[in-house]
Amino acid sequence: MADISFENLPAFEVAMGSDGMPSDPVLRRIAVSIKSLLGPHKGHELQLIASLSRKGKAGRGPLAKFDLDKAAKVKSVIAAMVGAGSLVSDGHADRGHRRIGVAPRADGATKQEIKENGYRAIARGVGSRVCSTPAGQERATSLFLMLRSVYGFHAVRFGNGRAMLVPTGIDMALHGPVASSAIVVAPESRGITFYQAEADAIRTRYGDDRKAAFDVDPARLRPLPEEGWDYRQIKVSPYASAVNNNRAETILAERASEALKAFRSQREQAQAWVGEELSDQAWKSFMTSLSRVKKLEAWFRRMLFTVLDPEVRKACLRMPEATYETYEWFCASDDVTRERRLQASAAYPLLTPMLKSFRLVIDQGEPLAPALAAKFGVSQSVIRRLVGVNWQKVGDEFRSFRQWDTAAPILQMADALGPQAFPSSRKEWDEVAHMGRSVSQMLAFPLPPELLPAVRKREQFARLMKQGLKDAVSDTANMLRNAVEGRWVSKVGGYEDFLDILAHDEADEGNGPFSDLHRLNPEVSRRTFDRLIAAITCGEHGSVKRLDAFNDAWHRGAPRRLASVKRLYRLSGNLETNTWLPMTPEPYEHKGGTLTWLVNEDELAVEGEEMRHCVGGYTEHCYIGKSHIAAVRGAKGGRSTVEFWIDNGKVVLVQNQGRGNVEPPQDCVSVVKAFLKTANGRKSPVDIQRHLEAGETRRHKRREETRKAREISPEIAESLLRLYDECLPKGYRGLSVAQWREMLGMPAEDGGEEIAGRIHQPGESALANPAEPAVRDNQGFAARMARMLWAERAA
Question: Which of 61, 81, 385, 633 is most deeply packed, by most CB within 10 A?
Answer without folding.
Answer: 81
